[in-house]
Amino acid sequence: MFGNPPSDIHQPSPAELRDWMELNGGPKVETFADLAAVDETMVPVGGLLRCIENGAVYERAPGGASDAHLDYTGGTGKKWYVRSDVYDPRFFGWSSGDMLPYLQQFADGDWETFRAPRGSEWTLSDTVTIVVDDLTRSKTLDLEGSVRTNTKNSAKILIQQNDKSLGVLKYVYINGGTTHLHSDNNIGFHIKDTRNVRFFGHEVRGDPSLLTSRGVGVLIENENAYAERFMWQNCSGVNLRHTIQFHFSGGVDGGFSFARAMVENMTLNGGVAGEAQIALTTDVDFALGVTNPQNFTLGETVTQAVTGASGTVLGWPEAQNVLYIGSATGDFNATDTITGVTSGKTRTPSSVVSPRLPNVYDSTFENITGNLEDGVIVMDLGGGMVGTRIMHIACEAEAGTRAYAFRVLKNSAGLDNWTFERPSIGDIDLSNQMDLFHGTPDSKAFSPLKIYEGLRLIPASNPPDILDGVMSYADGVGWNPGGIGEGDGGAGCFLRQSGSWQRVVTFVQTNAANLADANNPINTTGKYYGKPVFSASTNAEYRATGAAPSASWKSQLDGSLITPV
Known about the structure:
Helices cover 5% and strands 36% of the residues. By secondary structure, it is mainly β.
């Protein structure tokens, strides 16, 4: 009589109907605190219970269950499972204050999403560790609308991979929310030897009062593996020493690659003078070229004859004959023998690089804006940045102060003090108290922008900005620099140089017959006063004495004229 139900209406299964009837007609508790007193007379094993206060559904677990989420058997209560695919800390007893045990339970469990209550303010008293080796699914920290305040220097969220042989593992996402740091020695997030950690719409504040700038928003560290494919989109760094810090700390069979990072639409505020918001740092003072570096002992002291240089072995890279040295005193060279104090091994370095900086290559940094304090640097340049593109930095500082787009970090590897190639850079706004460089680099800093299949300049009917170095294509009508041509003869490519527009001269090959023909395209198209051509007939260069088709061509060899008719 009623026909079939619409296909877009969910039809509950018998099991779902049974659960719904049990919840709405079955046992309930008013508050989470009441759960501890529920016994077997109220809910049997496998039975469901609803909490009115937080809306959670709980399932009674067997007494011998080792995987129960809540355990009240130390008193008069029972064990319970939380029936939810999303980890809401209120379902597990959180109401205010420290979120540490709840975040760690989520990290250790099989939930995919942690959802902080919207509008909540919570604290973190120590390190929460997410080990990606153990994940069976990707993890998401949904922090939208919540504010976290670290209460100790050790309070941070650490995301790490312990076994790099496992390759690329599950992703970790951080969505929304705000983090307040505890002090200058505090870190918001620490990504160690881990790929594919992605932030969307998160904000880190060094000092909630905005009186000082301090701490590190995100520390990305390579020690024994690779911290690649980091993503930071539509996020903010407010009053921080470093918003993002790429740090190389050596390690056994480790790598210095931070490749394929993607930082887009980042907003900055504040900062510390002489420090970069996107920083490149290292513990490796020297990278010594030696054979079989693994024969040295990790942590031992290495000394060098003659120079007296010494330092601590921090490790060696994967499949490369290089020994990492930190805490160095003096300067190592590629001439004298080094000796491991513990291992007794000796080598003569074949090369010395100092310091060994991170390689942030094949990466993107785009649309970085904000208000900076005096002396703050937007971004460090150094290490290996081949394939990296940096586009549109538009920051400003207060009147009477200066801030900087870049700082070039040097090492001893040659190639103009860069280990490998430099990044390509474009659209850097240097108004509003911004300079391009902090200090004066003693080398080139950028790689030429690579354009394939041609670069087209659209004809301009109005003069562009009158700044030396600007190149533009005049349409010859609305804009005709110098008036040396008429019609399409006034059109052409011009370069602003020494305060004036100068035509970019091209070379055209023709012959005397063409030059003498007033109807030939050499006279009717693109002719302008002073235009140079080369005649294959006379082996001489000619220049136009005017823009009209009838204007003569003057030989630069003997001064003779060819007049078109």
